[in-house]
Amino acid sequence: QVQLVESGGGLVQAGDSLRLSCAASGRTSNSYTMGWFRQAPGKEREFVTAIDWSGGRLYYADSVKGRFTISRDNAKNTMYLQMNTLKPEDTAVYYCAATGSIVGVTTVARYDYWGQGTQVTVSS
Q1: Secondary structure (H, E, C), 68-119
Q2: How many helices (DSSP H) and strands (DSSP E) are in the chain?
Q3: Is 9 within 8 Å of 120 (Cβ atoms)?
Q4: What pLDDT shows up at residue 55?
Q5: Which residues of the chain fall below pLDDT 50?
């Protein structure tokens, strides 16, 4: 069992920055890979970014490359998402997720554990 709790969302203007965090507890050995997904109203949940345990393998959706940065601090059991130059199109509920897998990590179905989500709203 892994529990994930996101925080750091909010309402910002286009061009602003936010830093999300995801605190993990429980059997964190089941979170070799951790990722962020987002879901806008009426849309399917989509992959944003992922990171392996060591931080040596990073994955980014094309829509966020160069703007978002994923990181993790295993000593604190916390993952972060630094979001810069935010756009209205980034508006969504952002979800933290974890999986023991090292393959298929851009796919929703690969992940076993999910947080409750945190709202990010970017106004123009």
Answers
A1: EEEEEEHHHCEEEEEECCCCHHHCEEEEEEEECCCCCCCCHHHCCEECCCEE
A2: 0, 11
A3: yes
A4: 92
A5: none
